[in-house]
Write a structure and sequence with these properties.
This protein is 42% helix and 15% strand. The protein is α/β, with parallel strands linked by helices. The protein has a 7-stranded mixed β-sheet with strand order 3-2-1-4-7-11-10. Strands 5-6 form a two-stranded antiparallel sheet. Helix 1 (2-9) crosses helix 6, helix 11 (183-195) crosses helix 12 (203-214) and helix 14 runs parallel beside helix 15 (272-282).
Length: 351
């Protein structure tokens, strides 16, 4: 059933696949820390174009990879790779998001704590940014969609969010998920456009609207690079539409359930919201199944925590494999400019 549906949607992107395949970031470092071994079971939680999975399978001829992705095109690429002679029986494509994984693994005859490693490469891939019809790109005009599953699920598009959300909710989305300081001004302009019966349905319409609201003021990102005025708005909508932060948090919780003792976790993030979730899970700063939104160092002296919660802080389940976060070197940045904001964290499960 899934394969038939994928076949129908794929021609829409077929002409652009060759120029859109995702270049895996920090691939050598990621495989080094994942340390694949003979007969090991591995989970690639974000298959993309399969760069990391291919390296795992090529590095260790007896390893097996379960490749998860919610993007229909990425899943189709995983199916095609699994049919190649050298990978037959060693690559299992799985179609869905992180929260679908327990159900997807039910039929795979796998026990709890049965994986030797899990790899995450968060954020969007080049396959999504470079195809105008997906609605992720500021530089290419297309329908304002942004759904990573191509609209196959029940989620609404970014255009639907802009058409339906109240001004206060829009401002909150832009401020929390995009860290946009001008969130209120942009939200007000979107609501005013709706009042004038101007539905925002394309990426160009949104980008132009935000640029008009913010004027000619030049912007830079956290790495001091020139940035389009609408970059944070696009990021916020993408994260909200795809429920990305909750999915990442759930994905980190799954690592505790699926990795065997001494199993390895490698996570590559591309902005501070993603990295904060990963870092706080690895540091044990988790409250009731969620990454604590406040760093522990800011807890006041008047805050009293129960003994069970304090025990969870001091009995961390992870041992990190490096002292400082790992960044791409100048050579990789020169080859792939999108790697500039990448951060890699790796850890071993000790409990």
């Amino acid at each position: 059933m899934i394969k038939q549906k994928l076949t129908r949607i794929r021609p829409k992107y077929a002409r652009q696949i060759s120029s859109s395949l995702h270049v895996p970031v920090l691939c050598e470092v990621a495989i080094k820390y994942l340390n694949p071994r003979r007969n090991g079971n591995y989970l690639d939680m974000t298959f993309g174009a399969g760069g990391h999975t291919r390296r795992v399978l090529d590095t260790c001829s007896n390893a097996k990879v379960y490749a998860l992705d919610r993007d229909p095109l990425a899943h189709q690429l995983a199916i095609e790779m699994s049919q190649k002679e050298e990978y037959k029986g060693r690559l299992v494509p799985l179609f869905g998001k992180f929260s679908d994984l327990p159900q997807l693994l039910d039929g795979q005859n796998l026990s709890r704590n049965s994986f030797d490693g899990m790899l995450y490469d968060f954020g969007c891939s080049s396959m999504q940014f470079d195809v105008a019809n997906r609605g992720f790109s500021i530089s290419q005009n297309g329908p304002l969609d942004m759904r990573m599953d191509g609209g196959r699920g029940r989620g609404i598009s970014a255009a639907d969010v802009l058409a339906r959300a109240e001004e206060e909710d829009l401002a909150r989305i832009l401020r929390v998920y995009g860290e946009e300081k001008a969130a209120k001004k942009i939200a007000r302009a979107i609501v005013e456009a709706r009042g004038a019966l101007q539905r925002i349905e394309t990426t160009k319409q949104l980008a132009d609207l935000v640029a008009a609201v913010l004027g000619d003021s030049s912007r830079q990102d956290k790495l001091q690079r020139p940035s389009h005025a609408a970059t944070k708005t696009f990021q916020a909508l993408r994260i909200f539409v795809n429920n990305e932060l909750n999915e990442i948090n759930y994905g980190m919780l799954l690592a505790n359930e699926l990795l065997c003792p001494e199993g390895r976790l490698v996570a590559i993030t591309f902005h501070s919201l993603e990295d904060t979730i990963v870092k706080r899970h690895l540091n044990g700063n988790v409250i009731e199944g969620r990454a604590n939104p406040v760093p522990l160092k800011y807890c006041g002296h008047d805050v009293t925590l129960d003994s069970q919660l304090m025990q969870s802080f001091v009995q961390n389940k992870w041992r990190q494999l490096h002292r400082h976060v790992i960044l791409p070197d100048a050579e990789e940045i020169a080859r792939n400019s999108r790697s500039r904001s990448a951060k890699l964290r790796a850890a071993i499960k000790i409990k």
